[in-house]
Amino acid sequence: MKKQTAEASLVAFITDGKEHVYRLAYSYVKNQEDALDIVQESIHKALASVDSLRNPETMKSWFYKILVRTAIDFLRKQKKLKVMDDQTIEYLSKGKEDTYQDTDLYEALEELPHPYKTIIVLRFFEDLKLEEIAEITGENINTTKTRLYRGLKLMRIHLAKEDLS
């Protein structure tokens, strides 16, 4: 694929799917600014290596792989330090009762190790097929399936403990 055509296709893909791309980054860092930084860095990396993309049909999984790895690298650098954004701090400081739905579910997801969390987020939040997830994570399909089922089992165990509390 010619570089100019590949770049144009990549820009179109990112523009069309910007909500999905942002949501995936945000699912890792839970912070607007950091998610935007990860998206920006991922776009930069993708544009720099767009000529390595052999098949334009795999652009989505190729870019998601870059995005996931960038997010994980960011978290490693931050050593899982979670900083709340100003809106959240302001909201919580007013003493309002939180009205989040499925908080337990999101907490259970946050407790998972990255390999399990990545697969569950890509499968259920981004609606990707197991084959696409395997390509993004660089694992074979059987490992992907196993991690999906183990991750769901770990979430069920976490949720069951919450119910007993």
From TrEMBL:
Alphabetical list of InterPro entries matching this protein: RNA_pol_sigma-70-like (IPR039425), RNA_pol_sigma-70_dom (IPR014284), RNA_pol_sigma70_r2 (IPR007627), RNA_pol_sigma70_r4_t2 (IPR013249), RNA_pol_sigma_r2 (IPR013325), RNA_pol_sigma_r3/r4-like (IPR013324), WH-like_DNA-bd_sf (IPR036388)
Domain (RNA polymerase sigma-70 region) ranges: 19-80
GO biological process: DNA-templated transcription initiation
Molecular function as annotated in GO: DNA binding; sigma factor activity
Domain RNA polymerase sigma factor 70 region 4 type: 104-155
Keyword entries, A-Z: Sigma factor, Transcription, Transcription regulation
Gene3D superfamilies xrefs: 1.10.1740.10, Winged helix-like DNA-binding domain superfamily/Winged helix DNA-binding domain
UniProt signal peptide: none
Keyword Transcription regulation: yes
Top-level taxonomic group: Bacteria
Pfam families: Sigma70_r2, Sigma70_r4_2
Keyword Transcription assigned: yes
SUPFAM superfamilies: Sigma2 domain of RNA polymerase sigma factors, Sigma3 and sigma4 domains of RNA polymerase sigma factors
Family as reported in the entry's similarity comment: Belongs to the sigma-70 factor family. ECF subfamily.
Protein name from the UniProt record: RNA polymerase sigma factor SigV
Source organism of the structure: Bacillus sonorensis L12
